[in-house]
Description:
Largest sheet: none
Strand content: under 5%
Order of helices and strands: HHHHHHH
Structural class: mainly alpha
Mean pLDDT: 79
Low-confidence stretches: 91-95
Number of strands: 0
Helix content: over 70%
Shape: elongated
Amino acid sequence: xxxxxxxxxxxxxxxxxxxxxxxxxxxxxxxxxxxxxxxxxxxxxxxxxxxxxxxxxxxxxxxxxxxxxxxxxxxxxxxxxxxxxxxxxxxxxxxxxxxxxxxxxxxxxxxxxxxxxxxxxxxxxxxxxxxxxxxxxxxxxxxxxxxxxxxxxxxxxxxxxxxxxxxxxxxxxxxxxxxxxxx
Length: 183
């Protein structure tokens, strides 16, 4: 009988947490279809170990760890060929246009990070996990989390500055072109 209860417990967990878990998957892999595959694969892998998760409050952290490991396996096997996508991640309705644009830019520049760096940034900043929680989730030391996060944020800053310079150059060239045509 306990086994049937575990199955129902797992189904209830998936039903209540699916949206949040899918959002986590979308932060790990930009393509919506890959994100759905990632979540489904992680759920299948977690289902087999559901009874072993004594404290179900840790289920989200466990599942995120499974998603990260699965994504890393896929990346190593090159299942995930990262390509720019026209489709941006869903956002809540009350977001202002500017916040939406900022989030879209951030999702785009996250692609420059290595998978390990992206995982650390996602868990620390989006999932609001502590350094220790992130270290436990990723199976690394707290020091490695800190140094990886430091390098990742520096890389993101570099990429933002580079894009900002490109945009300013492009705007200046467009202005010159308009002035030349108007003359």
